[in-house]
Amino acid sequence: MREMKRRLRFCVGSAGVVLAALCLPAFAQNLPRTGGKVPGPVAGGFDQVRELPPGGPPPRMADGHPDLTGRWYPNGAGRMLQVAYPVDPVVFRQFDAKATPEEPPSFKPGVAAKYTRPLPYGICDQAGTPSATLEQIAQHAPMELIQSPGRLVMLYEYPLDVRMIYTKGRAHPKDPDPTFNGDSVAHWEGDTLVVDVIAIDPRLRIITGAGATGWFSSDQEHVVERFSRPSKNFLIYQVTIEDPVVLAKPWKSAPRRWSLAQSPNDEWGEVFCTLNQEPDEYKKITEQEAKTKGK
Questions:
Q1: Which pLDDT score is estimated for 271?
Q2: Is the pLDDT of residue 239 over 90?
Q3: Which CA distances in Å does 238 have to 133, 194, 226, 252, 288?
Q4: Are 147 and 67 in contact (CB under 8 A)?
Q5: Integer Cα distance of 138 and 286 in angstroms
Q6: Nearest to 51, CA basis, from 89, 84, 82
Q7: Is residue 85 a part of any domain in this protein?
Q8: What is the pLDDT of residue 191?
Q9: Is residue 2 assigned to a domain?
């Protein structure tokens, strides 16, 4: 039970009712609640959470580029934030919508029926690029970056995913096989790592954040990600998605802020989502619903 106060190790579906209350910290889609006062001390000290200071200049690799290595949270606090506690919304947010607004995607006429269809009930969030990074504005899970000469490794706790990004000496293959993370190559533009991604499997649903409908891409999708570390405690992620079949114009995210984990005991954990539409799981859900209605 050592990790129970941070998150569960598994969960039954992002849309399910089984374990719904227990799954809230890692899978909640709602925004933080901030109204009213909580009597007595708050577990985890969430009422005392504040934004981190910049922390000084970023560490650098031997080649002079910023070292992106670290365990990063999609907020300003450098720790997992629970939506059930009274945390300042400024600490929760990844960007200031007034200072850096993020426009919704603009679709080509007539494509909505094919590319913005709703998912069946009980589908878990699927790992892939760029959704695994973008959706953390709502899911709140951390990512871990490990940088070495020529390569950046990206690890996601939820949805469980691993990416390898090669930062030098590699070009896209002429005929790459589609994958959910696509084929990534990267180069540095000053202190910004620019990652070019093609060959993303069109079965991946693009999720941009809280309240977003999401959409499915075509096989012509092209993603450009930008990673920068302006200070020791903060990482900035921004992505542009081009798709001449689906989008009327490229969609560009706001620069989204991530903060460096502050606790030396903040360790990697596994988070699994099982599919609610599996017959045995669906039977459990419907039986539980029937019992609840019968009370």
A1: 84
A2: yes
A3: 10, 10, 5, 8, 42
A4: yes
A5: 27
A6: 89
A7: yes
A8: 98
A9: no
The larger pLDDT score, comparing residue 271 to residue 227, is at: 227
Range of the domain at 84: 44-120+127-264
Question: pTM score > 0.85 for this model?
Answer: no
Complete DSSP assignment for the chain = -TTTTT--SEEE-TT-STTHHHHHHHH--SPPP--S--SSPPGGGGGG--PPP--SSPPB-TTSSB---EEEESSSSSS---TTS---HHHH-SS-TTTS--PPP-BPTT-HHHHSPPPPTTPPPPP-TTHHHHTHHHH---EEEEEETTEEEEEETTTTEEEEEE-SS----SSPPPBSS-EEEEEEETTEEEEEEE-B-TTSEE--STT---EE--TT-EEEEEEEEEETTEEEEEEEEE-TTTBSS-EE---EEEEE---TT------EEE-TTSHHHHHHHHHHHHHHHH-
Q: Is 133 inside any structural domain?
A: yes
Across 148-155, average pLDDT? 95
Domain presence at residue 221: yes
- What phi-psi label fits residue 258: left (phi over 0), alpha (psi between -120 and 50 degrees) or beta? beta
Other Cβ atoms within 10 Å of 6 Cβ, number: 16
The tally of domains found in the chain comes to 1
- Of the candidates 45, 89, 52, 49, the one whose C-alpha atom is nearest the C-alpha of residue 260 is 52
- Whole-angstrom distance, CA of residue 134 vs CA of residue 74: 9
Residue 145: which of 132, 210, 83, 95 has the closest Cα?
132
